[in-house]
């Protein structure tokens, strides 16, 4: 069987984030598990050879690089559609929520979230117009859909009217290198990043949906209430519309205890999770929320939001809070600071919860979805 795959999120260098990581981990396993089948990887730019996971992978670079709504249109409805029409694979897998309407090749499309439908103010202009026009059509045109959580599946059902029976679930997972670390190594991390003090940790791109202004306000209230030496580390790249977060940061009474690290390496991220007093991750909305299980895998207690996919992913092993209320978030931070037994319970439950998720299982879900619609 010849399988075409949209791999434009397999970016050169060390740039993989949520969707790119899902693409990488599932495809690596699919290629290895099915050596008798040929995978045609459709890149939109020069590719890194490390993404050619086996001899049954054939790379193709299709122009133009698709990083703008007009270029998305040109790539998916032009270059990809032409390639599919010419080569006629058995199925087209797209792990990033986009596909092409201009093909008769059966399509399996992975949807990570419909955040733009619920927070339209967070994207604007041509991006919002593209999403709102094409995403429901992509969902309707795909013979099989895959969601990364039950919450996302229900969102597809309720927002676009897709029958639940057409939607499989393939969760994200925490990579094997996310693990607890010895106490001495944790202390070294605290010395390096937090002057030896305890710290709360946030991990994620700096953008509106991540709710950093309310987390910062909550941290300031936590400091006022407790007088603790605990710090807040914010790990992640500056994405879009991050201005309000920086405005709040400048107004904090305790901003000297907030440290923005930017992006870090995977190994540094493991160290930061493992040494944290707790991970504080309270977005307004997530299709999955992978920092929850990465933190749990590193034996970090987790505070997260009480809505969308986050309670589902946390699996009863996190402290939940209203993301719209800095006071509620602050109260949760106080509890995490002052209740060591709560932290111990969350760590224990978290290490159990992460066993529910595996890339092997998610890769098998994708394989079954492709098998169910592929042309003979």
From TrEMBL:
<protein>
    <submittedName>
        <fullName>Glycosyltransferase involved in cell wall bisynthesis</fullName>
    </submittedName>
</protein>
<dbReference type="GO" id="GO:0016757">
    <property type="term" value="F:glycosyltransferase activity"/>
</dbReference>
<dbReference type="InterPro" id="IPR028098">
    <property type="entry name" value="Glyco_trans_4-like_N"/>
</dbReference>
<dbReference type="Pfam" id="PF00534">
    <property type="entry name" value="Glycos_transf_1"/>
</dbReference>
<feature type="domain" description="Glycosyltransferase subfamily 4-like N-terminal">
    <location>
        <begin position="18"/>
        <end position="176"/>
    </location>
</feature>
<feature type="domain" description="Glycosyl transferase family 1">
    <location>
        <begin position="195"/>
        <end position="350"/>
    </location>
</feature>
<dbReference type="GO" id="GO:0009103">
    <property type="term" value="P:lipopolysaccharide biosynthetic process"/>
</dbReference>
<keyword id="KW-0808">Transferase</keyword>
<dbReference type="InterPro" id="IPR001296">
    <property type="entry name" value="Glyco_trans_1"/>
</dbReference>
<dbReference type="Pfam" id="PF13439">
    <property type="entry name" value="Glyco_transf_4"/>
</dbReference>
